[in-house]
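Lay summary. Proteins are chains of building blocks that fold into shapes, and those shapes determine what they do. In this project we predict the shape from the chain. Here is one chain we studied, written as its sequence of building blocks.
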Amino acid sequence: MKNAKKTIMLLAIAIIWGYAFVAQSEGGELAGPYTFNGLRMFFGIIFLIPVSIIKDTIDKKKANPKPDGDKKTLWKAGILCGLALFTATTVQQLGLTLGTESGKAGFLTAIYILIVPIFSIFLHKKPGFNIWIGVVLALIGLYMLCMSGEISLRFSDILIVICAFLFAIQILLVDHYSPHVDGIKLAIIEFLVTGTISLIPIAIFEIAPVGLSAWLSNTFCSELFIPFLFAGVFSCGIAYTLQIEAQRDYNPTIASLIMSLEAVFASIFGVIFLQQYMTNRELIGAGIMFIAIIIAQLPIGKRQ
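And here is the predicted shape, written in a compact code that computers can read:
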């Protein structure tokens, strides 16, 4: 039952991130990749601070409130996760802004589902045989869903591949620290680190060329309100916090497989909102991905 609840949380993350590709593409073009990436983190913090206060108030009223964990560990985890998240999201946003299509970006980003179990081996978390089958099937499904025509890698595509490695590191860091610290506080520190570091490239590459007043008027325009609101509150504030809570004592490879369904939901939202109907090939790819998730979670072997 505990794992079922976490699986639902991870599915919710995939749904939110599936739609977030639209917000990221629009926001990055209008505001600039560093500005959009950095400011959405602060939107996430604004959303999470009252949530954290309410949670602390509720916990104090309980007979046996759960401890937050060691503050030194919390800050260490937040800084490391924040550095990983900054580099991953910045590189991904640059790839999208420089021309990688959202579908292709979804596929290349989701390569982390192969990277996570490989890295996990070195962390003494050997994935089961069924998980490897799920990973291979998911990659096949992702290719059929997202890719069409010839395989080619431009500079922007290479950036997205690099971001897949960085997201794999972020997933494994969350897996390592989430059992030991408060999830909401970890998310707040993670976003604070990511947003603060983003101010440096914002100042150099996006404020300096146009001036502060022009940057302010361009950034805080009505066209950017919805992309910022969704990317900040839902993609950051809700989804990344859910990731921390869901990955607590959960197999990181299976978690990465479920979160990779963001590519499937991105296609579904394309049908619903943009009338971008899925081909038979894409439908088969989406079906293979769902089968892969089920196979990866089958209780095979004594350890499971």
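What the prediction tells us: The first helix runs from residue 2 to 31.
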